[in-house]
Specification:
Blueprint: H1 2-30, H2 42-53, H3 56-59, H4 97-111, H5 116-127
């Protein structure tokens, strides 16, 4: 009887420990720390969250039409509006609604399973009226 209780207790502790570990891991990976400027608006926060959750192969194949192609150091693609080439966040998209809207359109289409090539065509068709795009190579998949 004692042995049976000890085994049950050991199993319960092991299960509790692994559950706690899983919860700790999921909390740390689910929470992203952003700089304060990301919280400037709901659109800004939502678009930065989407930018870091999308695969870079998607965001680096999408152009931006906000005018960032004419910067002294031109943006290469949509991801550059959110993240610098060195991996640090940039504040550009926090104050640019167009970047956020483009990113959220990309994220919604990606979630629906639209191909990268189709997403690119849709973005070009919808946002080209805003001006010159970044010099982002066409999708060749």
């Amino acid at each position: 009887m004692f042995l049976k209780k000890a085994v049950v207790l050991a199993l319960a502790l092991a299960l509790l420990g692994s559950t706690g570990l899983a919860l700790a891991c999921s909390k740390s990976s689910a929470k992203t720390e952003f700089p304060s400027y990301v919280y400037a608006s709901a659109l800004s926060l939502e678009s930065y969250k989407a930018a870091v959750s999308l695969p870079t192969e998607v965001t680096t194949q999408m152009p931006c039409y906000c005018g960032c192609a004419d910067f002294a150091t031109p943006h290469r693609h949509l991801l550059d509006c959110f993240v610098n080439p060195d991996g640090a966040y940039t504040d550009h998209a926090s104050g640019c609604d167009l970047c956020g809207k483009i990113l959220l359109d990309v994220a919604a289409q990606h979630k629906q399973g639209v191909s990268i090539k189709e997403i690119r065509a849709n973005i070009d068709a919808k946002y080209s009226v805003y001006g010159k795009p970044t010099d982002t190579p066409l999708v060749t998949e």
